[in-house]
Write a structure and sequence with these properties.
The chain has 6 helices and 5 strands; from the N terminus they run ββαβββααααα. With 148 residues, it is α+β, with helices and mostly antiparallel strands.
Length: 148
């Protein structure tokens, strides 16, 4: 089936099966930041923004994205959150970074000045196996403060 959506700011039509998760459709569309990992919505590596809210793309059936605005890391461009992650080294292997950045972007859009506790709470659904959580929280705070 053909689904039409706004993908990274561009009206797009993608082919999908009725029971296919959005994750596979986005990977076929050439978006490597959407990472296949757990397949059950607990790791955050496949996070995308749907209408500005972080969603595990492994859990969202692709047809349910029809007519909606979907943003991947590739669609953020030169975002202050991405810059802060880079400047403050808020990653090691980088596998979790796209999901972390998108989740942090959604948080800062809703709450421009979140506390470190609120940042940790918002990022609880994103797993970093390298253990960079302290640097990640510092990067999100720096982005909120505009110091990056």
């Amino acid at each position: 089936m053909r689904i039409e959506l706004e993908l990274n700011g561009v009206a797009t039509a993608l082919e999908a099966e009725a029971d296919e998760p959005l994750l596979g459709v986005l990977r076929r569309a050439g978006l490597p930041s959407v990472r296949p990992t757990c397949g059950i919505g607990v790791c955050g590596a496949c996070t995308v923004l749907v209408e500005g809210e972080p969603i595990s793309s492994c859990l969202l059936l692709a047809p349910l994205a029809a007519g909606r605005r979907v943003t991947t890391l590739e669609g953020l461009g030169d975002d202050v959150v991405s810059r802060a992650f880079d400047e403050l080294g808020a990653f090691q292997c980088g596998y979790c970074t796209p999901g972390m950045v998108l989740t942090a972007r959604a948080l800062l859009t809703r709450e421009p000045d979140p506390s470190p506790e609120r940042i940790r709470e918002a990022l609880a659904g994103n797993v970093c196996r390298c253990g960079c959580y302290g640097r990640i929280v510092r990067a999100v705070r720096a982005a909120a403060e505009g110091t990056c």
